Amino acid sequence: MMGGGEIHCSADARRLARRKLPWMIFDYIDGAAGEEHGADLNRAALRDIRLRPRCLVDVSRRDLSAEVFGERQGAPFGVAPMGMCNLSTPGADLMLARLAAKWRVPHCLSTVSSTPMETVIEAAEGHAWFQLYFSGDGAGSMKLARRAQEAGYATLILTVDVPEVGRRPRELRHAFRMPFRIGLKQFVDFALHPEWSLRTLRAGAPTLANFDGVDYAFDRTESRAAADWGWFTNLRDAWPGRLVVKGVLDAEDALRLKNAGADAIQVSSHGSRQLDAAPPPILALRRIRAAVGEGFPLFYDSGLRGGEDVVKAYAAGADFVFFGRVLQFAMAARREAGLNALWGVLLEETSLTLAQVGACSVDALGPDNLA
């Protein structure tokens, strides 16, 4: 069955993807840092949040749009930055870009995407933001920021929670690295997943498309520990567009970033891929909202699996949210049909949850919706 009809929730997409993807690729997408207790803890925290059902409220007309930087988005969630998306299936970056164009939501393109930033923003019809890592001494990152500006990106997402790449045992067990080094174990892995392997072979192995290896090369394992507040100030001075800072879990940091010129903060634990002992981001979201006050744009990702999670995040203080790895699973499972199917599921789940809590839009959500 090549359509998306088997996908009724994000867990279905993950289950199907696990069958199709080589173990190395599935564990790269699905894995987290350390013992992965942090990922489990955030999911538990999200699950344990209870919503407050209301009755006899007219919710017959529900609006699923949301406002970001003064513009209405066609859905209450966007696409989080994810590196090497084309590992899930060839062309994944462009599938996400077309989805963003259709729904008028941000597609946050990763620094380490497999498709050039210029190609993606064109396919997304302008609905794309560029995610930036600091690396080395920061000079190469500034080059990428200038290139993004020239390509037409109006929003930059600076990810600040990777001073060093976290240890992810599932990746290490498979010797995952870019570019791939194929040994006997990897050869057997790929041979046992022929559909993915043949499709990837025809398309060509994904590369780091935003680097030419001459003007600026990228080393995934390179230290980023030299990033500091001075470099942030330099980036803020150089970047003329909107600057979102992603990977913030501390209220003190959030307030300082607000005062230093950030246009928005994205509360995130990097999908629990960096620090196993990090606090659950959904709980940090409430503390950060209290610190920065109402009215300051606050975005959220990490651990979202369905529409009820979307409503919980908005009620806890988010102004907009982003889905990540579940979209990759949908594409791995059923390619673009799977992506569109899961997106529709997430929209329906969000709409039904709004009805249950007596709200007609995500704009109306707040602490009163939490039990």
UniProtKB/TrEMBL annotation:
Residues the entry annotates as binding FMN: 81-83, 110, 131, 159, 246, 268, 301-305, 324-325
Cofactor(s) annotated in UniProt: FMN
GO CC, one annotated term: plasma membrane
Domain FMN hydroxy acid dehydrogenase: from-to ranges: 2-371
Binding site for glyoxylate: Y28, Y133, R168, H270, R273
Domain of life, per lineage: Bacteria
GO terms assigned for molecular function: FMN binding; L-lactate dehydrogenase (NAD+) activity
Pfam entry (one): FMN_dh
GO biological process, one term: aerobic respiration
Catalytic site: H270
Membrane-crossing residue ranges in chain numbering: none
Keyword line: Flavoprotein, FMN, Oxidoreductase
Protein family (similarity comment): Belongs to the FMN-dependent alpha-hydroxy acid dehydrogenase family.
Protein name per UniProt: L-lactate dehydrogenase (Cytochrome)
Organism (species): Rubrimonas cliftonensis
Organism ancestry: Bacteria, Pseudomonadati, Pseudomonadota, Alphaproteobacteria, Rhodobacterales
